[in-house]
C-alpha cells in the first residue's frame, strides 16, 4: 500500500515533468523560417497591372497559412515589418501620396496608374497586417484579436478596388526600407 502510493506519486510527477519538456522540443523544431529579409523594392507588388494584388502578396510571403501556429518567429517579424514599411511607402515622405500629388493627382494618366499602385500597396500592407494578427492569435497572443476584424474589412475594401481596376496599368515607386 505504501509502496504503491509512492509509485503513483512518482508516476504523476514524471508525467508532469515530461509534458513541458516535449512541448519545448516541439516549439524548437517548428521554428524554421521560410522568408528572407528583403528590401521594399524587392517585396512590393505595385508594378504591372491591377487586379491580382492579394495573390501577388501571398506569393511574396509564402508562409503556411494552414498552420499559422507553426509560423517561425523570424517569419512573423518579417511580416510585421513588411506591414510597417508598406504603410510608410503610402504615407511617408516620397511615398505614394507624394508621388500622386507630384503627378497632378488621380485625374492624370500617371496619377491613375500610381493610384492603382497605391491600392496594391494597401493590399500588401493590410494582408501582411492581417497575417501578423492571425499568427499572433494562433500562437496564443489573444490580445491581438480585437484588431483583426477592422483590418480584414479594410483589406476586403482594397481587394475589391484592385479587382475593379483589373487590367489597368499600375505604377510602383522605389522606396527605402526592408522587412
Ligand atoms: C516593386 O518596386 C520596384 C521599384 O519601383 C519595381 O521596379 C518593381 O516592378 C516592383 N515589383 C513588383 C512585383 O511590382
From TrEMBL:
Signal peptide from the UniProt entry: 1-18
Keywords for this protein: Signal
Recorded superkingdom: Eukaryota
The protein's name: Small secreted protein
Organism: Hyaloscypha bicolor E
Lineage, top ranks: Eukaryota, Fungi, Dikarya, Ascomycota, Pezizomycotina
Amino acid at each position: 500500500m505504501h509502496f504503491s502510493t509512492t509509485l503513483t506519486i512518482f508516476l504523476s510527477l514524471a508525467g508532469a515533468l515530461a509534458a513541458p519538456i516535449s512541448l519545448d522540443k516541439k516549439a524548437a523544431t517548428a521554428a524554421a523560417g521560410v522568408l528572407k529579409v528583403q528590401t521594399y523594392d524587392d517585396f512590393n507588388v505595385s508594378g504591372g497591372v491591377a487586379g491580382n494584388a492579394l495573390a501577388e502578396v501571398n506569393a511574396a510571403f509564402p508562409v503556411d497559412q494552414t498552420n499559422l501556429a507553426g509560423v517561425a518567429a523570424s517569419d512573423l517579424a518579417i511580416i510585421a515589418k513588411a506591414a510597417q514599411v508598406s504603410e510608410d511607402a503610402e504615407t511617408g515622405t516620397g511615398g505614394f501620396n507624394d508621388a500622386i500629388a507630384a503627378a497632378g493627382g488621380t485625374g492624370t494618366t500617371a496619377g491613375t496608374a500610381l493610384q492603382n499602385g497605391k491600392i496594391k500597396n494597401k493590399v500588401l500592407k493590410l494582408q501582411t497586417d492581417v497575417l501578423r494578427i492571425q499568427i499572433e492569435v494562433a500562437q496564443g497572443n489573444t490580445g491581438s484579436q480585437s484588431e483583426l476584424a477592422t483590418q480584414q474589412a479594410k483589406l476586403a475594401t482594397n481587394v475589391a478596388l484592385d479587382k475593379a481596376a483589373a487590367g489597368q496599368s499600375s505604377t510602383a515607386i522605389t522606396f527605402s526600407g526592408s522587412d
